[in-house]
């Protein structure tokens, strides 16, 4: 039996690049979808918030000096493209997915409507939340915290390139050790940047735990959902 009935999975756009410089790596997105499919087969309801860094990175040079709100809207549109790619890959792998956007683009994706999202999850469909919060100046981390709280997720799972939260950067400090669990307050005191400050505060205030793990470790998502000691659990 899974440890969680409903999860919010935060995927960065960069995670979709694989080893490519930008864009979507086909083998990488298929592997991620299969990992998600494995946990849905366990009976876990999965919602996904996806970033747009893999696409926006390609135009970021042109965004230098650009109005911040305009640049943020461009980033939101990039997440819609990623969400469509993720949903289509899910369809090809035999899953049923729905994309819900915080920005109205009704010819392409559904608008985000909370009761509808809850209905889809209860029906066993994967729900992909696109366009962040729909507002500039907020990150997709904040969107993940917000949507996680709204849909009653039991945990926010942040999929990264590193297998948890460490005392220091493990890529540069060989003595760095991984925290198995850590409290919100301790993470703040140690300035461990698990999520951005707004997202982190929202999770803490809503008593919504966060699990940071590596999406690049085979089977890691399933181990997290089964309650095993994978990555780092941040809790009240």
From TrEMBL:
PANTHER family linked to this entry: URIDYLATE KINASE, URIDYLATE KINASE PUMPKIN, CHLOROPLASTIC
Residues of the Aspartate/glutamate/uridylate kinase domain: 5-214
Subcellular location: Cytoplasm
Listed name of the protein: Uridylate kinase
Binding, ATP: 10-13, 53, 57, 160, 166, 169
Residues bound to UMP: 52, 72, 133-140
CDD domains noted in UniProt: AAK_UMPK-PyrH-Ec (cd04254)
Keyword Nucleotide-binding in annotation: yes
Any Pfam family: AA_kinase
Quaternary context: Homohexamer.
Subcellular location, principal: cytoplasm
Catalysed reactions, as listed in the record: UMP + ATP = UDP + ADP
Enzyme Commission number, as recorded: 2.7.4.22
A GO BP entry: 'de novo' CTP biosynthetic process
Activity control summary: Inhibited by UTP.
């Amino acid at each position: 039996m899974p440890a969680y009935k409903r999860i919010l999975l935060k995927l960065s756009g960069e995670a979709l690049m694989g080893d490519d410089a930008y864009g979507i790596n086909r083998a990488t997105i298929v592997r991620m979808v299969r990992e998600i499919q494995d946990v849905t087969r366990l009976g876990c309801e999965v919602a996904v918030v996806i970033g747009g860094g893999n696409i926006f990175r390609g135009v970021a040079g042109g965004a230098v000096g650009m109005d911040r709100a305009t640049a943020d809207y461009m980033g939101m549109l990039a997440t819609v493209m990623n969400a469509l790619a993720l949903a289509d890959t899910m369809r090809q792998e035999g899953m049923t997915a729905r994309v819900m956007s915080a920005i109205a683009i009704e010819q392409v994706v559904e608008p985000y409507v909370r009761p509808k999202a809850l209905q889809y999850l209860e029906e066993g469909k994967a729900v992909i939340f696109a366009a962040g919060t729909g507002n500039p100046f907020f990150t997709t981390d904040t969107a993940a915290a917000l949507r996680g709280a709204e849909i009653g997720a039991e945990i926010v799972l942040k999929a990264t390139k590193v297998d948890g939260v460490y005392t220091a950067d493990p890529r540069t400090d060989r003595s760095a050790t991984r925290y198995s669990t850590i409290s919100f307050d301790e993470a703040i005191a140690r300035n461990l940047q698990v999520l951005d400050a707004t997202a982190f505060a929202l999770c803490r205030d809503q008593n919504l735990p966060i699990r940071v793990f590596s999406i690049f470790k085979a089977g890691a998502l399933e181990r997290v959902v089964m309650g095993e000691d994978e990555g780092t659990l941040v809790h009240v």
